[in-house]
Amino acid sequence: MTERKRTEYFQGPAGRLQVVIDHAPQGPPRGLALVAHPHPLMGGTLDNKVAQTLARAFTDAACEAWRMNFRGVGESEGEHAAGNGETDDMVQLVGLIAARYPGLPLFLAGFSFGGYVQARVAARLAQTPAGPQALRLMLVAPAVQRFDVPQVPADTLLIHGELDDVIPLAHLLDWARPQELPVLLIPSADHFFHRRLAVIRHAVAAAARDSLAEFAASRRT
Q: What angle do CA 110, 120, 166 make, to 5 degrees?
């Protein structure tokens, strides 16, 4: 039986970084997903339940999901860098993934602080149109109240909990409204989506399948 996940390490700008890779269930992956965990100084790791849920959602959609421990977390070296170093690390990891799987579409997904980082990664990639790009960005409770989260593409999947007391819904809407971004609101959910993780999994998997189908159709025309 094939192992469903593996651990790899790559050399980032500030030292070795740990990545856990969740495999697509059958055959080669149709796409790739890079998942970012919540704030490392508040206990965030690649084993966070929301980060794991995002990874499972992408494997449900026949993608390979990569979860990296940020600097100073788990077996990753370095120290927390307020989102700047973490963005650099993620961009470098995107390059590694793109070189290993040329031509496969890439999703970026993040939870809380990880959502802030992934929004920055998407913006950084967009500055180099000839390089790898995100097919779609998926953000769960991005930390818009605590960080200067950049604008994101119009097709970004934005998921938030009604009762989030860490990133209150009002702050998320204040950030999303000028961009005219729709929000998938999960009633009664708190910041960590206790007993609501299945909703995230189904929504992200469905969105990933739709995006992969559109990508495949565009390659046939």
A: 50
Q: State pLDDT tens for residues 171-201.
A: 999 999 999 999 999 999 999 999 999 999 9
Q: Read off φ and ψ for residue 27, nearest 5 degrees.
A: 70, -175
Domains and CATH numbers, the chain: 5-220 (3.40.50.1820)
Question: What type of residue is 86?
Answer: E
Q: pLDDT tens-digit profile of 107-150? A: 999 999 999 999 999 999 999 999 999 999 999 999 999 999 99
Degrees to nearest 5, angle at CA 9 with 5 and 67: 50
Residue 201 tokens read as 């999994």
Question: Cα dist. 138→1, 53, 81, 123 in Å?
Answer: 31, 13, 23, 14
pLDDT of residue 3: 61
- Average pLDDT of the chain is 96
